[in-house]
Each structure stands twice: as C-alpha cells, then as structure tokens.
Amino acid sequence: MENRPVKMNNHTNLLQLEEHIYNLVDVQTPNVYRNLFPYDEVPKIAFNDRIVPHNMPEEIWITDTTFRDGQQSRAPYKTEQIVKIYDDLHRLGGPKGIIRQSEFFLYSKKDRDAVYKCMERGYQFPEITSWIRANKKDFELVKEIGMKETGILVSCSDYHIFFKMKMTRKEAMNHYLSVIRECLETGISPRCHLEDITRSDIFGFVIPFCLELMKLMEEYKIPVKIRACDTMGYGVNFAGSVIPRSVQGIIYGLITHGGVPSELIEWHGHNDFYKAVTNSTTAWLYGACGVNCSLFGIGERTGNTPIEAMVFEYAQLKGTLDGMDTTVITELAEYFDKEIGYRVPERTPFVGRNFNVTRAGIHADGLLKNEEIYNIFDTDKFLNRPVLVAVSNTSGLAGIAHWINTYYKLTADKQVDKNSPLVQIVKEWVDEEYEDGRVTVLTDEELIDVITETCIKLGISLKK
Ligand SMILES: CC(C)C(=O)C(=O)O
C-alpha cells in the first residue's frame, strides 16, 4: 500500500486532491493477478510488510443478509418463516439495534408480501432494505414500498468486468455511475455491492470509483454506502499482507484514499478458506462500522459470516453485549431444526448440538470438579445450553456422573459422583455395550432406561 503524506480535515478538499492521484486505470487486458490466483495452483498470500494501524470505530454493528445471500443458496423460506426470523433478529439485536439492517428481495409478489408483513411490525431495527435489479422501475418500487436504501451490484474485479460483463473498466464505471445517479434521483440511498473486491485493482479501479461515488453523495446529499464483498473468500487478515487480499489494506484504502467514512463501509465475507469470521472482525478493527452476515452462515457455497459468531465477536471486542439477547440464538437454531428442517452441523460453534458437549472421560473429570475448566463461558446463561458430557466408551465414571447431574438437574446435595453405586452400575452396563462391538454413542433414552431401572433396584430417587 502506498504511504502518502496526505492529511486534510476537509472532506471535499481531500476528495479533490485524491482524484488527481487516483485516476481510473483503463487497462486493455484484464488484470487477474495471476501471481496471486494461478487457478491451477492454490491461491497465494503475498506480503509487503506494510502495517496498517488499528482504527476501530466507536460504534460498530451487524447487518443481515439471511433473506438475500442466505436465501439465494437454499430453498426459499415461507412468508411466515421470514416474519418469525425477522422478529427474532429484532430481539437478538436488542434495543440499540446492533443488528441494524436486513435486506430483502423484491422480485416476486411473495418477496414483497414478506417485506410488507415485516414492515407492519414497526421495528426501528433491523431496518428493512432491499436488493433489486438496478433499473428505474425497481428504484420506484423501493420508494413506493417506503424503503430508504437499496443494494446495487457493482462488480469491481476484472474477472467480472471483462469476462462477465464484457466491458472495459471505463465502460463499467460509467454504467455503474449512471445507475447510481438514477437511484439517487429517485431519492433512494444506494448501497454499492463491490463484488469480488479481493481480486480487484484497488488503486486502479476501486478507489477512483469510490471517489466518484463520494462526489455523487456530496451532490445529492444522500448517503452512498460501500459494501466490500469478499465474494470468493480470498480475503486475509495477516499483518503486512498485500492488497487486494488484505482486508485491512482494503478498508484503509477505502477510508484514506477513497474518502469513504467508516459508517458507510460494510464488509461482506464468504467462508471458502475458513476466514469469514476473522476477516469480518478485522474489517471492524480497521475501520468498517458494518459487517454483513447471515444466520448460521447460510449463504452461497461455503456460506457467509454467521451472525451468531459476530454477536460474540462484538461482545469480546466491546466488552459488552450492549443489550443483545443471545439466548435467541438457541431458539433460532431450534426453529431452523424443527420448522425449517435445517440442522446446523453438530460441531458448529455456539449452535451445533455438540458445541459444548465433551466426551472424553479425562475432560469430564475436570468438568465435574469445575465446569469452567472445559466450557468456553457460561453457556447456560448466554445460550440456555448447559455444558454436557455425552456418554460413550471413553466417558468414564466421571462422565457418567456429570451426565446424570446435568440431565436430571440435580441440586448440589443430591449430586452423584464417581463413587456412587448408581454411577458404577451404569458404567458396567456402558462397558458391556462397547465390549459387544458397539460403535455409536449412547442415546439419552437408553441411559434413562438403565438409570431408572438401577434407581428402582437401589431404592433411590433422582427427583428433586
Ligand atoms: C452478489 C454479491 C453482492 C455478493 O453477495 C457477494 O459478492 O458475495
């Protein structure tokens, strides 16, 4: 990244100055960064060791794409499902609206019905915004429905400009600017989705384009948002890495050279290289106010940044949940499982069936002494999910004792331990099961049966 001694307080002057420095580079042939993306080899991460300073905004937030990118990649939700999820996003985001906006398709009558029903709720947050085909008719529709903002696709890498749109950079930029002007003419605030930014020419296309967008914002006095879309998940957050893959480099460039204020920058990540969460956190840390996410990360291919992950990233960075009700996350996971038929993979952090279940006997022994040893935080308090020990051949006496204590919610005076006869008899039964060649974990029902039978034999009760 170039290190320029430009420091001015006046926004307009800064834009004028930067405009002379960063003109559009209208290349004849696409720059596909073959050094970074050889295609027949695994992509490369390059370093120039330019260090970007931390610049986390005072206020940061989450925006939601469950009903847009999320729905793009699966069967559509029913209208009543959308309304229920929207209600829950409102509760999860809390009174300060940490989940600030949610974007909706407006293509079909069914899409629009869902929007009307959600709007009827009258919530301030998440604000309902749209995603449309970028034409005058659709801008009018956004206005008619009473929305203030719409997303517009402005793909910015040469992969898209040359190969998909069959345009030059200049043609693409002029086309985008005319569409965005049309949107502003309608009085609607455009949210410009800079698709594939992590393979784009940041100084040759993205910055000159943003400078033009900021000029339009000045002219119309309507906010123009920049959504930095890491469409293929190529973004990296390593200190000293090179743009266009460097998340902090992109955010720094947008702010310092593109003149885009933090509150108008959002990061939209994908998880192709397992980096969606850390890249989104990085975007916050280096100056983007918004991170765009979907519930459980459901989105194209490997998915988007999961909302629930960023709720806990927020709390860790800010030291407070700021009123977010995290127990709603568990309710939503149950709703997706029971009503929508979508089960999140068992080991998924915060929501998977096994996210706080331990199996190994040695861990269970620790848990039995003090649950903090093997639980990330008070998962019962924040997610209504008490830490659990599943019983298998490796659970040992301590694991079985912990399962009984947790399952039957035994008070301290009633709790069993590895010396209890009940625990020892159940352990013998478990061992026999596995000696006979069993390879699956024991179900709750099987354990309940054997425990009930043993309690009768021993003349004890686990009731409170
Ligand atoms: C289609 C675009 C806006 C997108 O969602 C992405 O780049 O991931």
Automatic annotation (TrEMBL):
InterPro entries in the record, alphabetically? 2-IPM_HCS-like (IPR050073), Aldolase_TIM (IPR013785), PYR_CT (IPR000891)
Molecular-function GO term, any one:
2-isopropylmalate synthase activity
This protein's UniProt keywords: Manganese
One Pfam family of this protein, by short name?
HMGL-like
Checking SUPFAM superfamilies in the record gives: Aldolase
Answer whether the UniProt record assigns the keyword ATP-binding to this protein.
no
What is one process in the GO biological process aspect for this record?
L-leucine biosynthetic process
Pyruvate carboxyltransferase domain location is 60-330
| Record has Protease as a keyword | no
**This protein's name:** 2-isopropylmalate synthase
